[in-house]
Recover the amino acids of this structure.
């Protein structure tokens, strides 16, 4: 996959690790090597604005994932996106750090989990129901356990 990462925070983040996670995910889920993905690491204020604009929720969140509008709902391989664009993931690194403390995780481990969660969204999974959320958490944990 072609990966673009934009760190818009003042934090030092291991971008090489993020690229490794995305590449391993692409192999595991058989995402076309031609697909392009964009990752942005932002702060609370920026993600709050985006969350309000796109989800009508006026608060920060850990991750937002934007897949092309013409992606097939039942396609879980990310093959039917708009041309070669798989999608964009926006991660609030401040929220990731807070959550890491809540889950007794390092910020790096929590960031990997949140990134994988966003990637699962891009290939068609959703967490709008408790069942969907549980499935995504399980898939994310299994992927990380088997690959990192």
């Amino acid at each position: 996959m072609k990966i673009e990462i934009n760190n818009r925070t003042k934090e030092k983040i291991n971008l090489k690790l993020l690229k490794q996670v995305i590449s391993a995910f692409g192999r595991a889920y058989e995402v076309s090597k031609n697909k392009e993905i964009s990752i942005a690491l932002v702060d609370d204020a920026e993600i709050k604005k985006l969350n309000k604009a796109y989800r009508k929720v006026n608060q920060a969140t850990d991750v937002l994932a934007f897949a092309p509008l013409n992606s097939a709902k039942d396609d879980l391989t990310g093959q039917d996106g708009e041309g070669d664009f798989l999608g964009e993931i926006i991660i609030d690194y401040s929220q990731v750090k807070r959550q890491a403390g809540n889950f007794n995780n390092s910020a790096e481990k929590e960031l990997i989990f949140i990134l994988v969660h966003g990637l699962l969204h891009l290939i068609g999974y959703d967490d709008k129901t408790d069942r969907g959320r549980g499935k995504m958490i399980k898939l994310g944990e299994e992927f990380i356990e088997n690959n990192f």
About this structure: The chain has one domain: 2-147. The helical segments are 15-28, 44-55, 93-102, 107-122, 130-147. Confidence is low (pLDDT under 50) at residues 71-81.
